[in-house]
Structure formats: C-alpha cells, structure tokens
Amino acid sequence: MAVQTVASSTDSVNLGPAAALSCRECGHRVPLGPVFACEECFGPLEIAYDFSGYDTEELRKRIEAGPANIWRYAPLLPVPADVADKPNLNPGWTKLVQADNLARELGVTGGLYVKDDSGNPTHSFKDRVVAQALEAARVFGFTTLSCSSTGNLAGAVGAAAARAGFRTCVFIPHDLEQGKIVMAAIYGGDLVGIEGNYDDVNRFCSELIGDPAGEGWGFVNVNLRPYYAEGSKTLAYEIAEQLGWRLPDQIVVPIASGSQLTKIDKGLQELIKLGLVEDKPYKIFGAQAEGCSPVSVAFKAGNDVVRPQKPNTIAKSLAIGNPADGPYVLDIARRTGGAVEDVTDEEIVDAIKLLARTEGIFAETAGGVTVGVTRKLIENGVLDPAKTTVVLNTGDGLKTLDAVAGTGLTATIRPNLDSFREAGLA
Amino acid sequence: MAVQTVASSTDSVNLGPAAALSCRECGHRVPLGPVFACEECFGPLEIAYDFSGYDTEELRKRIEAGPANIWRYAPLLPVPADVADKPNLNPGWTKLVQADNLARELGVTGGLYVKDDSGNPTHSFKDRVVAQALEAARVFGFTTLSCSSTGNLAGAVGAAAARAGFRTCVFIPHDLEQGKIVMAAIYGGDLVGIEGNYDDVNRFCSELIGDPAGEGWGFVNVNLRPYYAEGSKTLAYEIAEQLGWRLPDQIVVPIASGSQLTKIDKGLQELIKLGLVEDKPYKIFGAQAEGCSPVSVAFKAGNDVVRPQKPNTIAKSLAIGNPADGPYVLDIARRTGGAVEDVTDEEIVDAIKLLARTEGIFAETAGGVTVGVTRKLIENGVLDPAKTTVVLNTGDGLKTLDAVAGTGLTATIRPNLDSFREAGLA
C-alpha cells in the first residue's frame, strides 16, 4: 500500500465535523487528506469526528427538518455544512419497507423490514458512498474522479461526476458483460477496459496513484476511501430514524469488503453516544454467498484470520475473495451476538423470487443473499423471529437479470378464450 | 368497446373525493364502478370530483404534512382517505432535478428541471397509475389484477399486486425480449404470452372482460382505466409543489396514448381552481418519436383527427400507433399555446447520452424523446429558453439498454502505466 502525501494544505480543509484521520489499528492520527493507510503501521485510516457541542434535541430537530436524502445527516458526515447546495445526486432516504408478507412466510413475528437501497439514483447503495468521496474530492482539489469497478460503482461514479462537473476515468475488466459496460459508459467519461481480472485492475489503480499521471485524481475507493466508506453510516441513521428513532434488534447486512457492515455498526454507536436513540443491545449479522464466503468460514471456525478465497458465485457485487474489513466484521458479529452465514447460488435465486413475490421488490443478487441468509438463520434458530429485524437490499434486480434468466412465461396461448381455457388459467 | 355493468353496489363505494364517472364527450354521469365507456355515446369515462369544502391553506398544510409519496395528495385522488395505511408500493415524490448543466448546453436561462420518474419503485411512472387502479380494485372487490402490456406496465402491476396480496394474470406478446419477460415474471403471478402482437393482446383482454372467465378481474388499463389514468395527475401536483407551489411556464410530456399529458393538464387546472397555485398561463408540449408520431403529424397539419400509424421506433414504451387521447392532446397543446413535436431514433439516442453526460440521469428511450424534443423546440424557437421549463423522464435506462448498446469503452489497455500512457488518457 502506497502512502500518498497530502496534496493540499489541511488548514483549509472544511469537512464539517470530520476532525482527523485515525488509524483503526494503532490509533495514530493524521490531518485530513487524501490518504488511506497509516504511515506508522499501514493500518486503514478512518474518519475521527468532533461531535462536541451537539445538543441532542436540537440535532434531532435539525435532522428531521433536513432534506429527504443523506444530507439531512450532514452534521454527522465528513462533508461541509453547505453540502446540500452543491450539485450532486442527493441519494438516500430510501424506503424502509414493512415486509409483512415476507414476515409471514419466514415466521417473523417481531416486525420485519427491508431497507431497499434500489431506490437510490443509480439503484444501488454505492450512490451513498460516492457522494461522500465526491465532497472530499472537491475539498482536496481533485478534478478527475476515478475508481476500479466491476459495474455498480462505475455507474455511481459516472453519474455523480456528471452532475457535479468532474472529469472521470474509470477502470474495469475489459471483458465485462455488454450491459454493465453500457451502464458505466452512458455518462460519457473515459471508461477504460483493462486486459486482466478485477485484481489486475486494482493493482493498476494503486500504481497510477503513485505516478504523476494520476496526480489530481481522486480514486473514490482508494485514496478517498476513508471518506467514501463513511457513506454507509447513513444506512444506520436512516433505519433508526425510520423506525421512529429506535434501534432494530437484529440487522442483516451483505459482506463484500465488509466495510458497509463496520460502518453501519459505527453509525449505530454514534446514534447511541449522541443520545438520539436508546442504548440497547442490537445484533449484526453478516451475509455472504457460499461461492465467496471467507468471512462466514472464518466465523464458523472461530478464527480471527480471514483466509482468502477465489470467488465463484452469481452474487458478483459481493465477490471479494480477500475482504479488507473481514477481521472487523468478525469482531462486530461476535461482540453484538450476531453471526455470519452464507447461502448457495440456488438459495440466492430462491430468495430473490421470494422477496419479489411477497413484497414486490426485485433485488439484486446481493439482496438474495441477505434474504436467503435471514431465512437460513431463522431456520437454524440463530436469528430470533420475535425480534425487530431489518434486512438490507443494496441493489436492483435489473442489474443482475442473468441470475434469474430462467424466470419466464406461465403459459403461451393463442389470442382467444378457448385457448385461454385450455391453459387452465381461468 | 364493451360496456360492463357495475359489479358492486355503488352505495358502498368509498373512493375519497371521487363523486362519479363523467363522459368526456357528452358529460353523461354514472355512479363510480368498473366501467370505462359511456353508455350513451361510447366516449371515455373519467373521474368527476367533489372538492367542495376544501379550505386552501388547510389543504396545503395537510399535503405538506403528508407522506413522501403520492398519498400526500390523497384528498385530490380517487382513493379512500386511509389509503396510506394499506399495503402498496407508495410510489411518487420523485426528484425534480434542477438541471443546470443541461440548461447550459441547451441555452435555457429561465430554469430547467427534469422530473425524474425513474426513481419510482419499479422505475417508471407506471407505478403511479397502477397504485390508483389497485385501490379501485380493492373497493370494487376484485381479487385478480390484470393488464395488457409490452413490459413496463406488467412489472408495475406484478410488483404492486405482490405487495397488496392480489393474484395477477398479465398478458404480453409471447415474443418479447427475455429481459422484459424476466422483469414481468419475477413477481410470481401468471404471465401469459399471447401468440400475436400487442393489438392482439389488447383485443383478447377486451374479450376476456366480457366473459365469465374474467369475472372478478380488474384490468388496470381497461375496466379500471378511469381510476388508473388519474395517477398521472400526481406528476402535476409534485412538480408544482416542488417548485414551491408554482406552475412551470413550459412542460414537455411524452405521448403514448396521450392520457398522461391530459391528466397533467387536469392536475394543473385543479391546483389553480383550489387556489394552491397562482392562476397564470402555462404551455404543454407533447413529445413523440418520429417512428410513431400520429399526434405530432396531426398537430403540424392543423388537423383535429389523429390518423393511426404503424409504429417503428426504439421508443417502444411510446409506440402506440392509434393513441386514444390523441385528439385531447391536440386540444390542450393548442389551448395552452404549446406544440407537439417528434424526433428521430438517432436524436433519441443522442438525447439519452446528453442527459446522462450532463445530469447523471440514465433515461429510458421515452426520456430521450422528451429531452430531444425539448432541444428541437428550442432550436426552432417554439420553446422559450427564458422561461421555467420542466421535462419529464418517465422511465429508466436500465430497461432499454438495447437502444444505447453501441456505448462502450474509451480504450482497452494492459494493466501497466506504459500502456495507459500510449492510450493518451493521462
């Protein structure tokens, strides 16, 4: 991991309550800047905040009076106070769907909710994280936004950059499906295919950051990663506020790098510390596909170390074989009394159909993973059906149509009533 | 057109302010019921309301305190007052995007906004209309929801019915693209392929309504059409409220059957009558694809009659060659001082890319039609760039990927800096 020097003077950095970067491993603090690894121990840097001076009820009122997007939580994010006035996609404040039909099917009696992030502008939770990276890029004076991606992120970066007036140069494996290339290319920036797999793309991006050619470039998931990652906290804030400023008892989160799960925990902890919700126990459950289940395997084996896997699953947006935040996910699942579980590709498809059939929500494969894992955890007696449970759907089924391509017509008939009756549909 | 008898006693019909059905042609009134054609003259029936007793400022407050979906306007829709408590997809309250970048490209100085209905639950405006039909179906005691569709509507009906607990039986041409079949089938109801084209599907549905086999079936766009169509009024309400209870000067609306445009006009007129906005002139512009432009052709020729066309355009969701509301669209365009214009398939693709590149909105082909027509109307001096203008995007680009399939990689490189430099991207 390359440690980049801070490009601009940090005296002028205005990212709201963000006070510094702090190493998750050794606690070493550095000023806010486009850096992502600790200069002391190479651990990951994350945002440290100064929330002092916040009055709980004033803060709650300010949030409730805010816009119907993530910027209602600007006082808790690494963004300038006037962020809502700057051109961006205004993601978030997606629906928390009370899933009574699904609850009946799964035997949940304590209240079941689906946090449906397919309602975001580019139809995945990535809009939340990209929006944070964008503000950091503005503050640090970057003029080009970049990332390595297998699809969803490329679209989210392309769309956000278009609205905000940034140049983009996004890197993807050259042999992605045509549909994903279109979704990423439509926003008109440079889209570069790399002859190699996603690991090759990542390695190349790290090389580019250290090179003069990459100067002035903000890689949302590399040198802007500490800012980017905080966007997932907004999922926690919204869930709690939409439940009436109440913590859920149980929450089921998909695991790719594991970052989202750790930031949801961070967000819930902040709400408790700020007095916005009652301090009560909650359990966080991680969900993986069997074909890419390094964290689930480690959890079940009682290991602290996550052994990398070579992914082979239809849940491609979760297919990170060596998840950077895997050990932190294990910590959180164990500390909160949760668990990490995985489901097969067949169970993922079944769960996508179950969610669509019961709630009218067409989820990406990642949503099939969380719903499938929820069902499995209930069957195994690990998740308590009498408790309030929130399941995340982080993307849209329109992006992973191939996974359910077998779904089709009930019948084919000629356009007359006799043919209709013969088909037994009356 | 078959005239169906009213299935249930209308004494018990509670659809809020909806008072009766009224013939658009002869004014003949009939009680609320699942009928769609006048028994006197076979003209189309539409909802007549009783808005008496509304106090303007009370109504405004009630709306503003309502939920962030179409049900904030329940007092103005044919739905029971407690509609928001019933399980449904809660569509609407989509973003009105201030499109400053697009405005610069098009030379608009008076304020340009995109009403982006891709933010609806199934990513098209169809969720608005289906939600109304669903409430009517509940009230009339239907247990099966049905429709004829070429894709978008089938998905909207499937999703809404799943959430609300209706059985569905949806009819589509049997040879639709596999992706559209998946989008419609995923919600688990019956999806029946008809050996024939969309006209054959429509004719079959009309036959089924008159047959005992179709008893208890609500066809959202046939026998529930008067209720269904009112959903488009919510676009007008939202635009005005999101502009700060102000009418836009100009609004560009796509034309398929023409129903949406007529209901937007109806909605704006209601806001004026209710005193919720200032009574001032506005112009409504209709947008078609050249390959299916019967209304545009009639407008330009100065005709009152719309001559049917055989559609041939990539804008398939607008490809209705014999639009039922065509004459009403002509009336409204002429009365308000608007116009109807069309663009070629090439201009549609260019406009999709323009909107994506400037505002990060990936529109369906129908959105390409409205943006393309807006550009053309400005170039021709018909649309005034100094006035506040709203352009509708009624669907999502993910649903019409084929239309922009040529969009692709800027470059393909090997994963090293030399290859990157050779490509001239630095």
UniProtKB/TrEMBL annotation, chains A, B:
Region forming the signal peptide: none
Residues covered by the Tryptophan synthase beta chain-like PALP domain: 91-395
Cofactor: pyridoxal 5'-phosphate
Molecular-function GO terms, alphabetical: threonine synthase activity
Enzyme class (EC, first level): lyase
Keyword terms: Lyase, Pyridoxal phosphate
Annotated EC: 4.2.3.1
UniProt record similarity statement: Belongs to the threonine synthase family.
Protein name (record): Threonine synthase
Gene: thrC
